């Protein structure tokens, strides 16, 4: 204050006290905040450089969340591929099981009679025939009782193109046979469909005589295995639809873009696929698809192709996952580097600042003592009065 006159010694000590107090204030702030640069006034260059370095870790930190989601999305697709591969292997096992079973089975038809509405077999014997007229598949055959089995045989043979049946007489008994022609009875079995009517028409089967010839048919076990195979394809379809993460399914046609830096110039595009059963080249089979070993071999070839497709795609997803995880680790390390660099520019050495505080406190005490001594020199003037 201009109205107060201070001696040179007092003013010098006062300035030292003020300087010490200001230094103590800065030191206390550094100890409290842990930073030696708290504002642009402390060190403009370090302050603005550190601010720039700290802003990028913040941006990269936000990208890490999306990168983490990308890792899980690709991992989910990879797990889906592994599970689908196991289902394909199960389908291969099913097809091989069909291949190892017999293609056909031999069965003996149940006892039946020519007079039955539907007769299917390869050899039925009539014990006696005394009918004068009877009808097969709408064709009326007339014979006399004296003709007996021989007459019925000749009459049936006249219409074999219609009935798909021929007849012979053996030991006085009428025997029916299959007729395989382009227009009749292609399966080689005796079939008399519709109504068989007549007078005195009897058959040995009615009396308990079993058919004399066995029937060869497709193995029903193979049809059951076709059903199992088709069920596995249904499971593949369902599994492919359940292999998504956070709304993105790389096995159901979705694609994924992963950004690695804040301006989007560094990124990875992961192309999705549609890997339901049809997408890997597998289709539902008809019930008779396993009836022949040739068709089973075709199915096994399709399954091998599907397996190769899955392995190739698994390799691609594995490579993509490796890239994303590598960039994730790199981003974490980069954030640490940037934050460390910013800290080196702004953080204070607390040990050094604590030592500075002790020195300033000692200086403050000495300055106070010196100011007191300077003031006492001025007070000595009062002793003259």
Principal-axes geometry comes out as rod-shaped
Tally of structural domains: 2
Helicity range of the residues? 40-55%
Named CATH topology of the largest domain: f41 fragment of flagellin, N-terminal domain
**What would the average pLDDT be, to the nearest integer?**
75
Largest sheet: 3 strands, antiparallel
| Head-to-tail CA distance between termini | 27 Å
Radius of gyration: 51 Å
Which strand order spans the largest sheet, edge to edge or round the barrel? Answer: 3-7-6
Would you write up a description of this structure?
The structure is a single chain. The model is unreliable at 109-132 and 184-214 (pLDDT under 50). α1 (8-33) packs antiparallel against α7 and α2 packs antiparallel against α6 (293-346). The protein has seven helices and twelve strands. It has 385 residues and is α+β, with helices and mostly antiparallel strands. It is rod-shaped and about 175 Å long. A hairpin with a 2-residue loop joins β6 and β7.
In short:
The chain is 53% helix and 12% strand. It is of the alpha+beta class and 385 residues long.
Q: Characteristics of this structure?
A:
385 residues; three-stranded antiparallel β-sheet; 12 strands; rod-shaped; f41 fragment of flagellin, N-terminal domain; alpha+beta; 2 domains; single chain
Ordered list of secondary-structure elements with their pairings:
Blueprint: H1 8-33, H2 44-100, E1 104-107, E2 119-121, E3 125-126, E4 133-136, E5 139-142, H3 148-158, H4 160-163, E6 165-170, E7 173-178, E8 190-192, E9 196-198, E10 215-218, H5 220-241, E11 256-259, E12 267-270, H6 293-346, H7 350-379
Antiparallel strand pairs: 1-10, 2-8, 3-7, 4-5, 4-9, 6-7, 11-12
């Amino acid at each position: 204050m201009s109205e107060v006159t201070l001696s040179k010694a007092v003013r010098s000590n006062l300035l030292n006290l003020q300087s010490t107090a200001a230094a103590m204030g800065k030191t206390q702030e550094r100890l409290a905040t842990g930073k030696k640069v708290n504002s642009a006034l402390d060190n403009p260059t370090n302050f603005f450089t550190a601010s720039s370095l700290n802003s990028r870790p913040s941006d990269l930190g936000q990208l890490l969340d999306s990168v983490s989601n990308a890792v899980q999305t690709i991992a989910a697709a990879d797990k889906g591929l592994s599970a689908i591969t196991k289902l394909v292997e199960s389908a291969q096992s099913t097809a091989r099981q069909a291949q190892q079973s017999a293609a056909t089975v031999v069965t003996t038809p149940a006892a039946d009679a020519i007079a039955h509405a539907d007769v299917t077999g390869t050899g039925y014997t009539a014990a006696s025939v005394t009918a004068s007229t009877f009808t097969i598949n709408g064709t009326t055959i007339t014979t006399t009782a004296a003709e007996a089995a021989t007459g019925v045989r000749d009459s049936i043979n006249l219409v074999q193109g219609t009935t798909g049946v021929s007849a012979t007489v053996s030991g006085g008994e009428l025997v029916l046979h299959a007729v395989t022609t382009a227009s009749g009875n292609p399966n080689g079995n005796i079939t008399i469909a519709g109504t068989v009517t007549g007078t005195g028409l009897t058959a040995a089967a009615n009396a308990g005589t079993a058919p004399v010839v066995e029937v060869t048919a497709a193995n029903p076990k193979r049809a059951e295995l076709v059903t199992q195979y088709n069920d596995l394809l249904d499971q593949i379809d369902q599994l492919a639809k359940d292999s998504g993460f956070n709304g993105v399914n790389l096995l159901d046609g979705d694609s994924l873009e992963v950004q690695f830096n804040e301006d989007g110039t560094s990124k990875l595009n992961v192309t999705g696929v549609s890997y339901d059963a049809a997408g890997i080249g597998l289709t539902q089979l008809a019930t008779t698809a396993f009836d022949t070993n040739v068709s089973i071999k075709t199915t096994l070839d399709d399954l091998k192709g599907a397996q190769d497709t899955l392995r190739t795609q698994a390799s691609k997803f594995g490579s993509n996952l490796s890239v994303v995880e590598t960039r994730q680790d790199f981003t974490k390390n980069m954030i640490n580097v940037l934050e460390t660099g910013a800290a080196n520019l702004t953080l204070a050495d607390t040990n050094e600042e604590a030592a500075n505080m002790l020195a300033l406190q000692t200086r403050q005490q000495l300055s106070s003592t010196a100011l007191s001594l300077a003031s006492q020199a001025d007070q000595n003037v009062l002793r003259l009065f």
